[in-house]
Amino acid sequence: MKQWMLGIVFGLCAFPAQAAVNVFACEPEWAALVAELGGARVSVYAATTAQQDPHHIEARPSLIAKLRRADLLVCTGAGLEVGWLPVLLRQSANGRVQPGRPGYFMAAETVERLEVPTVADRALGDLHMEGNPHVHTDPRRLLRIAEALGERLVAVDAANGDHYRARLGDFRARWQQAMDDWSRQAAPLRGMRVISHHQDWVYLYDWLGLVEVARLEPKPGIPPSAAHLSSLTATLEAQPARMVLRTPYQDARPGQWLASRTGMQVVVLPYTVGGSPEAGDLFALFDDTVARLLEAAP
Amino acid sequence: MNRVINARLASVLGLFFTTAVSAQGSIISNAFNPAISLILDGRFASFENDAEGYELPGFMSGGEAGLGAEGFSVGHSELVFSANIDDQYYGQFTAAIADHGGETEVELEEAFIQTLGLGAGVTVKAGRFFSGIGYLNEQHMHAWDFADAPLVYRGLFGDQLRDDGVQVRWLAPTDVFLELGAEALRGERFPAGGAANDGKGAFAAFAKIGGDLGASHSWRLGLSHWRADVVDREAGGHSHGGAAEEHASFTGDSAVSGIDFVWKWAPGGNATEHSFKFQAEYFLRDEEGDVTVIAHGATDEGRYDGTQTGWYAQAVYQFMPRWRVGLRYDALEVDNDVDDAHVAEHAGLDAEGHTPERWSAMVDFANSEYSRLRLQFNRDESYADADNQVLLQYTMSLGAHGAHPF
Questions:
Q1: Which of A10, A49, A61 sits opposite B220 (nearest CB)?
Q2: How large is the ipTM?
Q3: What confidence tens digit (pLDDT) does each residue in B47-67 have?
Q4: Which of A145, A156, A123 minimizes the C-alpha distance to A41?
Q5: Torsion B337-B338-B342-B346 (CA) sign
Q6: Hey, what domains does chain B have and what are their CATH numbers?
Q7: What count of other Cβ atoms lies within 10 Å of the Cβ of residue B188?
Q8: Which of A62, A83, A152, B103 has its CA at a distance of 20 to 30 angstroms from the CA of residue B57?
């Protein structure tokens, strides 16, 4: 039995290495970014879709099998995947992507994070001690992550270093141009008051200057309750807001209920690549996000 | 004895609280400490029959087998420490603190190290761990969907199979999940016994295959086998109203084979609102050897050759955020051949012409990922007198966020 197993193991070691770098991306935004920076030299797998809540993913056998063969793991980090990624890492038997190795890249850890709690108390909800992990909703932070990820691709696949550096330079130029356009288009949104379902958009607000009045979740990670929603109607009478924002994977009902009582609009933002029919890549994601906000704005 | 345990308990808890306080000041100073979580578990149980009289006819019960206390009680409080040791190893330690017969006992539930990437898909685990056989066996009891173990786990493994030893797993480099594993074990704990062959008394092997069907469905199928040279395995769980002073022990060969299946569904893979989980496991145990019974001061021996099989199937549906309902059915079957009727009766190997079965229904509510309240009802026909059981349970975790396996 044991000899037979070892036979298979050594047989597999003899296989030639694959040409493309295998990348396991925890969320669609990182899969899209890897595709921008790696082009044909990478083969990228997105572990989740825009219709799934990245906080709550099953550590499925298929994900373990995919991570087993990855050369590079690209995730958000900052506690977003704490409920499933540690299990995948331990079961993947893949030393290349373990914490501390070049193949382990946590995007949120390369940028400044907001909402870093000063008190660790779960009575305040499901806090991320590393700060709010939803960093990709700010294109300025996304560019800094792209630069760190580009360097990491060079470290993992040094033979193709020039390829990644060239693509990063190209991406940077196009992204800066796009950011200028989005900022100009979104200028009327500055100071607009909004309500969010969860704390998904903190970085988007930071970028566009939106003002968050309240959240539908009474505490981070605790679903909206009837009591909390009723109390929000009172808050909104005193401090009206223009719209309720949610992601495609969040329950539609709490936002609709509140909107129907307060005259607000519910706006579903794509949140990540694939979150709307229009949001096919990172550029389209922000095009569509800004367009949807402008459409609902006064 | 008790004082020693209390001192140990105090030092373990002291360590926990010091870390928790320092964690408040700064997360950086805590970065190299192990992740610590404390599981609090308590329940209220109501049985129609006397819990002391519980038995599974035809099974020499051991381990944790039994119904537990009636009325209010705290279950297993677990203290879990885990961390990456360095870039090559991960370690985990679990102490279970529970009351047994009025005394607080600290039990070393798990203490293992595991490699993080030997290469070629191989993972080695060493120490004390839950065996990789079956589906439920590797999960902590507090992660189960019902408050008690399936009857087949209770009867064959004394709720859960864990042992000291080494486990080697190999994960295939394929898109379909395929994992093979083998374990060499000490074989001292129930359902083995005696740590035969100089402390290498038991062996286990398993194969698991799994994958996805679209974005909404995922599944895993497992095959497992466990065998042991058993020396003087005590049957602890059997009693006749708790009165008679008697001992039964088994020496011989024991082998268990099993098949397990789990299927999970969530619309588009998004379990925020609705999700469904179905699981079923079947085990067959073959035993052959000698049974010794000491009863009423007399010693009797008998030759025993038996087969016990059992299975359960359960379904759990999340019908709205935080709320789930579940249904489970259990059944066992016994075919034991003992050449001495007196030995068979006193060792608990006499099936008494009964086929154990049980229906269970539960509803649970999880306020957050860290807390769960559960109400469960069992129609328990483990033995001839059918019992109606009501269990009200809480399971809460403090500290580090646990990641749950599939």
A1: A61
A2: 0.89
A3: 999 988 899 999 988 777 788
A4: A156
A5: negative
A6: 44-70+120-394 (2.40.160.10)
A7: 18
A8: B103
